[in-house]
Amino acid sequence: MSSKGWAAFAAMSLIWGVPYLFIKVAVDDGVSPVFLSFVRVAMASAVLLLLAWRAGVLAQLRGRWTWVAAYAVIEITLPFPLIAAGEQYVSSSLTAILIASVPLIVALLAIRFDAAEKATGLRLVGLLIGFTGVIVLVGIDVAGNADELLGTALILIASCGYAAAPMILKRKLAGVDARAAMGASLLIASGLLLVPAIFTAPSETPTGDAIASLIVLGLVCTALALVVFQFLILEVGPGRALVITYLNPVVAVALGVLILDESLGAGAVAGLLLILAGSWLSTDGRMPPGLRRTRAVPA
């Protein structure tokens, strides 16, 4: 990867490690999953479309609206509310661990849709190890609790969207400026979420913590993150871009334990290790050359 690719990778590892904490704070304070998602995407779309307009890049969307809409539904409109709904039943730490399965789903989808990302040999072994981790996590920590099983299912469905959407971005929107592509996608998602958001709007003003969480989710974890993420995908490819999910759960688990006093069961620990190991192998199981040359340098 280039130095720019590594910079984007580091930024995304941090930026997408923190949303689960803020989502948990907001939904626990009574903000509905759909209303949370609408505010988040509406705020981000306004910022990105303004930047795209000032940069004069909105014309790049001409003839691509079908794919922009498809990306909006698969990456944003469905996953965002599903994850927030799932966090009504499970911890932010468990959510992040489940999202770490996204590279495994990418490898699985690639068997049919993207030969460049297809898992064979060692990558196929990683796929099996990773999904074993999901089974261990669900079987030990979640099984027997209907609410947690529901939350887990919602988050895993969202993970499928996160895995499929980058393939659309890579194939159909590669030439579109990130501000225009992401701003338009978020605008479409806002429109789709508007009506259900109105019906699920809070009856009282949300708490200060919830409002702060919505602002961070909209401006940092959505507007900034989606632009950086598109650059990362185009720079290194969908499979390797999603290696950020190796570090996201570590950040999220640390925040959940330190700030929200969440605890990890044996299944969560074992599942996390297996998922991360499987994800690593399923996206090659090798350190990129640039990192191999520098990894021995002392801190």
Task: Give a description of the structure.
With 299 residues, the chain is mostly helical. The chain has one domain (3-285). Helices cover 75% and strands 0% of the residues. The protein is built from 15 helices and no strands. The protein has helices at residues 3-15, 19-28, 33-55, 65-77, 79-86, 92-99, 102-113, 122-142, 146-172, 178-199, 208-236, 238-241, 248-259, 266-282, 289-294. It is globular, with a radius of gyration of 19 Å. The protein starts with a helix and ends in a 5-residue tail after the last helix.
Annotation keywords:
single chain; 299 residues; mainly alpha; 15 helices; disordered C terminus
Alpha carbon gyration radius = 19 Å
Order of helices and strands: HHHHHHHHHHHHHHH
- Report the biggest beta sheet as strand number plus sense, adding barrel if it closes: none
User: What is the structural class?
Assistant: mainly alpha
Low-pLDDT segments: 286-299
Average pLDDT metric: 83
What is the overall number of helices? 15
* Quaternary structure state of the chains depicted: single chain
Strand tally: 0
How would the global form be characterised? globular
Number of domains: 1
Q: DSSP strand (E) fraction? A: under 5%
Helix percentage: over 70%
Pfam families: EamA (PF00892)
Organism: Solirubrobacter deserti
Keywords: Membrane, Transmembrane, Transmembrane helix
Membrane topology: Multi-pass membrane protein
